[in-house]
Amino acid sequence: MEVTLLNVVDNTVLIESDFIPSNGLSFLIEFNDRKILFDAGDNGNILIHHMILLNIDPSDIDLLILSHGHWDHTKGIRALLYHRETDEKLRIIAHPHAYRRRRFAKFLTRTNLLLKHRTYNMGFPKLSKKLLDMVILDSTTEPYEIAPFLRTTGEISDRKEITSTSDKLKMKEGRRYVEDFQLDDLSLILKTKEGIVIILGCGHSGVLNICAKAKEFYPKEKIKSIIGGTHLIALTEEKDLEYVAKNLEEKYDRPFLYFSHCTGKRALDFLTKRFGKDIVKPFMVGDKLTFEC
Predict the structure, then answer these.
(1) Which residues contact 237 (CB under 8 A, 6 or more apart)?
(2) 199-220 pLDDT tens trace
(3) Separation in Å, CA 43 to CA 2, 49, 142
(4) What count of other Cβ atoms lies within 10 Å of the Cβ of residue 277?
(5) What would the mean pLDDT of 78-92 be, rounded to a whole number?
(6) By CB atoms within 10 Å of each CB, which of 7, 94, 111, 210 scores lowest?
(7) Is 2-288 a CATH 3.60.15.10 domain?
(8) How far is CA 218 from CA 40, 71, 75, 150, 190, in A?
(9) Does this model's pTM top 0.85?
(10) How far is CA 230 from the centre of its chain?
(11) 112-133: per-residue pLDDT in tens?
């Protein structure tokens, strides 16, 4: 079974290409006749523009999985739905918290900006009744099996290692906003013939915690690759980056690292220097990886 992973939306593109860099993430996973979108990016126009360039028909997407509910992974959903020409409803799989509203935790003091940020939603976009009728919103904290070789991690609440959460956002709970611990963060695990491949959205749970979760499912399998956003930009001290690198090397099989999106240039430079370009590899918009499962 051949499975492909295509980068549709990301921060980095080739300069000479027609792709547009965007502070969001969206990957397309294909196998057999299935087309699964992992996140929808931060800009609907860019998402659709790239889908046209990559010859992806929005109507052919049969499942959307959200790594979490933050705007840079969900804002493209409305455009995706607007461009679908099918009566088939789009099933969306996510953690229950992914559908909640988010906002900045700390407001600026100027009144006009204060009012703006109080009303601005940094989470799942508001959908009209027409768009809501086009989707099936599934929510679960448990791992979800997409295929015998592909599943979500489910909620990763056991976070013994360093996390990559952000303290700048709050989440709406009832009528009030509470601290957003990013419990909705989930990743994908692809079991290939050469080991497991972990696909991340932002990796707020912490890349080491995600690796530990993947090993719970496949304790005897080698981690071949880790792909996607890791939010290592949140780790400001080199000793923390070294701790992550050391564990990836000694405990988690020294996998190939296709880190992108929110990883951050400083972390990428550190890891490239630490492991070399044979291990740390680029994965830009339009790039495709193929796996045998």
Answers:
(1) none
(2) 999 999 999 999 999 999 999 9
(3) 30, 10, 29
(4) 9
(5) 97
(6) 111
(7) yes
(8) 28, 31, 33, 12, 10
(9) yes
(10) 9
(11) 454 454 457 889 999 999 999 9
Q: What distance in Å separates the CA atoms of residue 50 and residue 19, rounded to the nearest whole number?
A: 6
Question: Does 93 score more than 90 pLDDT?
Answer: yes
223-229 β-sheet, strand order:
145-147, 150-152, 188-192, 195-200, 223-229, 256-260
Strand order, beta sheet including 90-94 = 135-139, 90-94, 63-65, 34-38, 26-31, 2-9, 288-292
Strand, helix or coil for residue 229: strand
- In the numeric block, the tokens 């609440």 are attached to 157
List, in sequence order, the alpha helices (H) in the chain.
44-53, 71-74, 77-82, 111-119, 129-132, 207-217, 238-250, 265-275
Q: What strands lie across the sheet with 176-179, from one edge to the other? A: 102-104, 169-173, 176-179
